[in-house]
Amino acid sequence: MKQIILVGIGGGVGSIFRYLIKVLTARFSDEIPLATFTANIIGCLLIGLLMGYFAKNEHISPDWSLLLITGFCGGFTTFSAFSAENLNLLQTGNYLTALTYILGSLLLGILAVFLGYMIAK
Fold it and tell me: Taking the domains of the chain in order of start, what are their residue ranges?
């Protein structure tokens, strides 16, 4: 139960920060989704920093990883988790799996949004 609460707290705070990024970037660009782009890049940098830090400091409780990586970064942007998973696949030599995961996620994700939109419309 403690792990679920940690993920929930981290996810809630991450979602709040994601919303703040949207508010702060709203006045800068209407042409590209700047808020999503900004959150994705910041989230990827942050998850990389956290993964590296926790890998270097193995004595730190796994609860911190749940709170900050799974919770906060997951609530802030799932793109960071997607990117971290692909980095892991590439680092372990699973190139075809990474490529399949990347292309499948992008293509099927866009298709799923389109289908959901068409069904709801």
Answer: 2-120
